[in-house]
Every structure is written in C-alpha cells, then in structure tokens.
Amino acid sequence: MSDTDRRPRTANPAPFVDAITEYLEPHREQFNYDAMRHTFLDNDRFHRWAAQVDRHHPVEGSRFLSSGCGMGGSLLAYHDAGAASVTGVEVDPLYVRMATLRTADLADASVQQVPPDPPLPFEDGRFDLIESMDVIEHVPDPRAYLAELLRVLAPSGLILVVTPNRLWPVEQHLGIAGPPWLPVGFADRVFAAAARLPGLSDERRFKFRELADIRTQNMSLRRLRGLAVDLDLHLEVLVRSDDGEAAFPLPADQPRAEAMMRSRWGKFVSPLKTLAVTLQPR
Fold first, then answer.
1. Strands 109-113 and 85-90, how do they pair?
2. Residues 104-124: tens digit of each pLDDT
3. Full-prediction pTM beyond 0.90?
4. Which residues pair with 280 in a beta bridge?
5. 155 phi and psi angles, rounded to 5 deg
6. CA distance to 182, 195, 207, per residue, from 226 (Å)
7. Chain Cα centroid distance, residue 169
C-alpha cells in the first residue's frame, strides 16, 4: 500500500450531505435514487483515482485541476493525497454550489463556474495534474477542449481522461443498449421516437426520452489516439494489471476485454466499458 493510500480521508461536510439530500428529495421514488445518492456522496473511487495517478505522476505538492469537477469528490481526494492546491471548474451552477460546500473547509481549494467553451480563466502552465472524468463525451469540440487543457498544463504535467467506450454497446449514463453504435444525433431521434411506443415501462420510456442531448460524442480509443497525435501528446492506456490490482479505480470488466486492452492492437477493438488514458506533452 502506498503512502497515498494510507493518508487520512476528509469526510463529506454535513452541509454538503444535507444539500444532496434536499436536491434528491423530488427523485426519491425514481428507479435510480439510491444509485444517484451513492454517486454523489461516495469518495472512495476518487481516492483510488488519485492513487492510480500517483503511480504515473507525483500528486504530492502538485497543482491539481478537475475539469468538470461535478460534486467535487476529486478535490477532496487529491487534497488528501497531498496536492498543494485543488481547483475545480464546472459549467453547471448547481454543481459549483455543491462542490463549494464539499470543499468549504479546505484552505487550498477553489471552485469556479466556467462557460462551456474555451478559454479557461487560468494562465498558461498553471497546473501539474488535470483530471477530465466523463466530460469529453459531452463537449462540442474534443480537440479544442484538449488543446485548452494542454495550454494550462505545465510542460511536465499529466492529463487523465476517462470516458465511456463507444465499442461497449450500452449507453452508460442511462443503461440503454444500442446508442453508442449509432451516430449521436441519429440515436437521439430513434430513441425519442421509440419512447412514444405503447407498452413500454415507465422506466424505459423515461430513459429513452432522457437520451437526447445527454452526450455529444461517441469516444473510442482510436479517436483519443488521433487527438493525441494531432496535439503531439504521448498517450498511455491505463489498464488493470495481470494480478487484478484490487485498487484499480474502474470495476472489473470481461476478462477477454481486459486482456485485449493489454495487447498492442487488441486495445483498439476491445469492448471495454470505460476508457482511461493519460496524456503528456512530448
């Protein structure tokens, strides 16, 4: 176990927990209420990501940015792992408010609302580590988005990108089979039409309607590699080690898919659910 894994962990502040409870109250009877509450309050997965990144670039003393920080769980985790400062940016004012509540007791933390398009309100080379967790599939221009992250990254810094893999046939935000294998706009129209079919359960009808505009991109490793080449970045795929690596942040996938991710060419056709890569300036 690394020193990062052994550090004490900051608990969610009570005002943040109360705010989450209030926010979710209208959804108490919704099919995914428990899953949403766990997602918003869980910190363990963020600490595992911080430990994983620490194996590739020291977190201790780093200046950390979470691009699309959501509810701010990463800010707690990287603070606990020894980052010198933790900064979160978000386009959603609700998430900004929640992340601010979550990090209110941290002297080295800040959260800012930003517009959906570049530029970010930071000088060049401001950060040593940048995390982009489940964001790039929502942006209008992935190249411009990564180029802006690269601008605010220190020359020796590292960017972590985590995104659903389009080769896995299930749309992971809603659990619908099919959309990742179709062009985004076409899939939105098909499932919006299917939502009007008779005989659907309320849950499935809700999911079909929610699909529209939930993402803007279908991301694959081939596409990420193309972006890395275009921006002169070194890309490294993060995968579970052969011994299972219990601390690996992503849930275990099909063994064959994980084995394919460890091969030179198989990783480009592996139907792994989620892609995780690091990007560094060459």
1. parallel
2. 999 999 999 999 888 999 999
3. yes
4. 234
5. -55, -30
6. 20, 35, 32
7. 19
